[in-house]
Amino acid sequence: MSKTPRKSSKSEGLQLGRAVEWPDTPERAKLDRVPNPQADTNYVVRFTAPEFTSLCPITGQPDFAHLVIDYVPGQWLLESKSLKLYVASFRNHGAFHEDCTVAIGKRISSEIKPKWLRIGGYWYPRGGIPIDVFWQTGRLPKGMWVPEQGVAPYRGRG
Fold first, then answer.
1. Do residues 79 and 15 lie in contact, with contact meaning Cβ atoms separated by under 8 Å?
2. Is 149 helix (H, G, I), strand (E, B) or coil?
3. Is 27 annotated as a binding residue?
C-alpha cells in the first residue's frame, strides 16, 4: 500500500483539503462522499458528534445533543469534514429534536446510500424532559457486529 495520498480528479470538488465557508443552513450544507476502497467488505463506520446544537423552533433557545451515527458503507464513504460542516449548519436552525435527528439520518442516507445506517440523537433535557430519538434504514448485513452506542440514558441527580 502506497504511503503517498492518491489525488483523484473527482476529489477536486470536495471540501476536504481546502478552506470553505461554513454553511448557514442545513439546506445549503454540502455532504461529500468518496469511493469506498473496501467496498467488497462489510464493516461499520461510526461518527460521534457530542456537542451538536440547534435551536428550539418555538422559543429560539439552544438545544444540545450527543449524536451517534453508525453505518455499513456500500460504494461510498461519508467524508468527515463535510459532515462536520453539515452538523455545524444546525447551530442557527430551528427544529424539534425529532426533526433534526431524522433529517440528518435521511440526508446522509440519500447522499451515500449505505447498506445500513442508524442515528441516535441523545438530547439534553428541555423543560425537564430528555428526548432520545432513533432512526435507521436498510438491513444490517448478516454477521455484523455493531457496538452499543455507548451513551447512557439521561439521569439527573440521584
1. yes
2. coil
3. no
Q: Is 51 annotated as a binding residue?
A: no
C-alpha cell at 79: 467524508
Q: Mind listing the pLDDT tens digit for each residue in 40-83?
A: 999 999 999 999 999 999 999 999 999 999 999 999 999 999 99
Question: 9-13, 15-19, 34-38, 103-107: which has the minimum mean pLDDT?
Answer: 9-13
**In 117-134, which positions are buried (b, 16+ CB within 10 angstroms) versus exposed (e)?**
bbbbbbbeeeeeeebbbe
Catalytic residue positions, numbered: 56, 63
Q: Give all domains of the chain, ordered by start, each with its CATH number.
A: 37-138 (3.30.1130.10)
Whether 10 has a pLDDT exceeding 90, the answer reads: no
DSSP character at residue 129: B
- For residues 111 and 146, give the distance between their C-alpha atoms in angstroms, rounded to a whole number: 22
Residue 45 Cα distances to 27, 33, 78, 116, angstroms: 24, 14, 9, 10
Tell me: is residue 12 an annotated ligand-binding position: no
Cβ neighbour number for residue 26 with a 10 Å cutoff: 20
Tell me whether residue 78 is annotated as binding: yes
**Enclosing H/E stretch for 67:** strand 62-72
